[in-house]
Amino acid sequence: MKPTISGNSIEKTFQSVISNGLIREEDTVVICYDLSFLEERIRHLISLFPPSAIHGIAMKANPLVKILTLCKTLNVGVEVASLGELVIARKAGYPPDRIVYDSPVKTFNDLEYALKEGVHINADSLMELDRIRKLKEGLISESTVGIRINPQTGVGKILESSVAGEYSKFGVPIKYRRDELINAFREHQWLTGVHLHIGSQGCPVEMLINGISLLFDFVKEVNDLLGYQQITIFDIGGGIPVSYSGSATPVSMEQYAKTIRDKFPLLFTDHYSLFTEFGRWVHVNTGWVASRVEYVKKDLGINTAMIHAGADLFLRECINPKDWQHEYSVLDKNGNLKRGQDINPYNLAGPLCFSGDILAKNVDLPAVEEGDYIIVHDAGGYTFSMWSRYNSRQTPRILGYYNDGVRFEILKERERFEDLIHFWE
Ligand SMILES: Cc1ncc(COP(=O)(O)O)c(C=O)c1O
């Protein structure tokens, strides 16, 4: 499978965007998703794991309802991390037994709602588990319940997206609460699942495998102690890193799945229900963003392309540019890819009112002119889902397409002023 969408494919698609009139004067930014590629990635994922596995695609990576609906037709589930996401998942038509509900701060009301809906719930703490116990005494629920365990395997390259350090705000730390965890399984026969998630981007595969290994041993120990197989649900979370650079070799999902199968063959049999929660791997490489260049400033020997996508769409990139770097291309106003002429460094500055709103600095690009488009590659996940309302910019038009722009679909219309005002009312 190709690692990402090539510049040539984006060029062809963007020309089709223009000729179909899909980019209007007010569309200073458009987000485009290659839906053929998204489908291909999901089918590939499904083919690598046992057919019974439930792939709860992490909604936080891309919550667009039309994308969720498309994913659902491919027979995957969804991982949700708040009550809001749970409600969106139900609206998109996901059945309860395909929804995995994670969140570190579920209220009594959230838990009651989830139990009544009958979705799978991963408790984040022993305290949350106790709330579930209390609620279950007063209602009948189809929900299955697991507990998130922090295997304490360490942090990866990116601190703010690593969640399995010695200390983490997520899950129950296994080293310090092993006995309490065992007791929880002993006391609650309905507690039939374990869940881990090591981090998102920046964690080496060996670390993910190490986490699974620690939990696998723990599960065996508990089931042996209890004398029967109480734990049947094994949720390995997400976290496979992707490549944000067309030239780097991405981590292979094929290799990851194979390693899990080779090391823990029982996870690939009927012995366990295997759950996964990939988000980044599914979405990031399937989308790109085009922003019109409004002005090019040339002061103090620095070229600054003033564009319309900044920290509102690329929060992490602006706050922590060292860890989050994309590839960029330039298309002229007719959608022709500018190749290799007059390369110079450019700062790509966003539209927001703070000086840190710079998407990238010193990016080598061919001569950028007013009216060109800057393409941000690999922007299909954790971008629009992290949209910031600062400065009240309207959310952009979002397009889905098949086969390099042979067919388009508007996934979400550019936000209208009425909706923008409604947000603040
Ligand atoms: C609990 C949980 N599951 C799954 C994911 C998805 O991770 P990724 O998008 O890296 O696959 C996350 C993301 O942080 C998460 O917190």
Task: Considering the chains and any ligands shown, give keywords for the structure.
425 residues; alpha/beta; Lyase, Ornithine Decarboxylase, Chain A, domain 1; TIM Barrel; 2 domains; eight-stranded parallel beta barrel; six-stranded mixed beta sheet; 12 helices; 31% helix; 22% strand; binds pyridoxal-5'-phosphate
Account of the protein in words:
The chain is an alpha/beta fold and 425 residues long. The protein folds into two domains: 7-33 and 285-424, Beta Barrel (Lyase, Ornithine Decarboxylase, Chain A, domain 1); 35-281, TIM Barrel. The protein has helices at residues 7-19, 35-48, 65-73, 83-91, 108-117, 126-138, 174-187, 205-226, 253-263, 280-283, 315-319, 417-424, and strands spanning 29-34, 54-58, 77-80, 99-101, 120-123, 145-150, 172-173, 191-195, 233-235, 273-276, 287-292, 295-299, 302-306, 328-331, 344-349, 358-365, 373-376, 397-402, 407-412. The strands form three sheets. It has an eight-stranded parallel β-barrel, surrounded by six helices. A six-stranded mixed beta sheet has the order 14-17-11-1-18-19, sandwiched between helices. A four-stranded mixed beta sheet has the order 12-13-15-16, with no helix packed on it. It is elongated. The mean pLDDT is 96. Pyridoxal-5'-phosphate is lined by residues 58, 60-61, 79, 102, 197, 200-201, 237-240, 277-281.
